[in-house]
Design a protein that fits this description.
about 35% strand, eight-stranded mixed sheet
């Protein structure tokens, strides 16, 4: 399976449903991948992106700490497929172990660990949106739509 490195553009709320979306963009391209997530996971991703450090570890912080204390690390996150409207992902640990995860949890962990996030080519084919880089007004219009 071919994977493409992505970056997290941000967390937005899609109207009128008020459903949070994590917007990913391929690092060396013009395609975006919106992934619908739960409100709690959206908050966890937004906190990590903004560098918010809670007084006590939240669930994703705790899981990252536990992995590191056990002598491993989160090497990479792979968003793999979309089945019946549900996205799937894998955490790749330092020793090559793959753990199935929800994409929202995987992204929240990857941001905290500074790990690479990748999406399969198939995901971009099935759910990606192309927005040419030179079309800044289109990108802004898309962001306004998501906001």
């Amino acid at each position: 399976m071919k994977f493409i490195e992505v970056e997290v553009v941000g967390v937005r709320v899609e109207m009128p449903s008020n459903q949070p979306i994590v917007l990913l963009k391929e690092k060396s391209g013009i395609r975006y991948l919106p992934i619908w997530v739960g409100a709690t996971e959206a908050t966890a991703i937004a906190f990590a992106q903004q560098g918010v450090v809670p007084p006590r570890p939240l669930t994703h912080d705790l899981f990252k700490i536990a992995i590191e204390e056990l002598g491993s690390k989160i090497s990479e996150v792979n968003l793999t497929e979309l089945v019946n409207g549900v996205f799937y992902a894998n955490l790749i640990l330092g020793d090559g172990l793959e753990i199935s995860a929800r994409p929202s949890d995987a992204i929240a962990l990857a941001i905290r660990a500074g790990s690479k996030i990748c999406a399969s080519e198939q995901l971009f084919v099935e759910a990606g949106i192309e927005i040419p880089d030179q079309a800044d007004d289109e990108v802004e219009a898309f962001r306004e739509f998501l906001d």
